[in-house]
Specification:
By secondary structure, the chain is α+β, with helices and mostly antiparallel strands. The chain has three helices and eight strands. A hairpin with a 2-residue loop joins strand 5 and strand 6. The longest helix has 23 residues.
Length: 187
């Protein structure tokens, strides 16, 4: 019995140290002070948040370590012209229909354009969908005209079009934030 308890304690310590190491791998890299957006310049479509004057926002150059299935927060974003996504997608310099299954990944996961046009699998709400990576959800900057006066993206975001949410079977009234897992699609 004592041997079993020692083994159990060792296993728990290993798990806790791995979890602590993962958490330490991605700490804030800086801070941004929110400014008041000019009148009618912050697009609040899809319940997007506007920067608050004086509020301090963390910025990140990294994202949590990727696993075979990586935990993330799914957010809602319109990639259409005039949508809350701001400008054209970084990967192809185009806007995308809300009916297209496309996503933006937080800066660290976007990996300096290396995930551009790759297909990822998103699992949530008991379903699975594939989507094309077309943009970065910028975790390093925000609260300016380039970012539609929205705060920096958190470092664990998969920002998805309405088509992705629909494919996951999430009713419109429940769209906005949802815990999911994502992975690179295997061919």
């Amino acid at each position: 019995m004592a041997f079993f308890m020692r083994q159990l304690i060792v296993a728990v310590l290993i798990i806790l140290s791995v979890a602590a190491a993962d958490a330490q791998k991605c700490k804030p890299s800086g801070k941004i002070r929110g400014t008041k957006p000019p009148k009618d310049k912050c697009n609040k479509e899809n319940n997007s948040e506007c920067c608050k004057p004086g509020k301090i926002y963390d910025t990140y150059e990294c994202s949590p370590p990727r696993r075979r299935r990586t935990k993330a927060v799914l957010t809602l974003n319109s990639f259409e012209k005039g949508g809350d996504g701001g400008g054209k997608s970084e990967c192809d310099d185009r806007f995308h229909s809300d009916k297209s299954k496309v996503v933006a990944l937080s800066t660290g996961w976007f990996d300096h354009l290396r995930r551009c046009n790759k297909t990822v699998t998103i699992e949530g709400n008991g379903r699975r969908v594939t989507a094309k990576v077309v943009d970065e959800c910028d975790s390093t900057a925000g609260c300016d005209s380039n970012h539609d006066y929205q705060p920096p993206c958190r470092n664990n975001i998969v920002d998805a079009s309405p088509a992705v949410w629909e494919a996951l079977g999430v009713p419109e009234k429940d769209r906005g934030l949802m815990e999911v897992f994502w992975s690179d699609r295997r061919h």
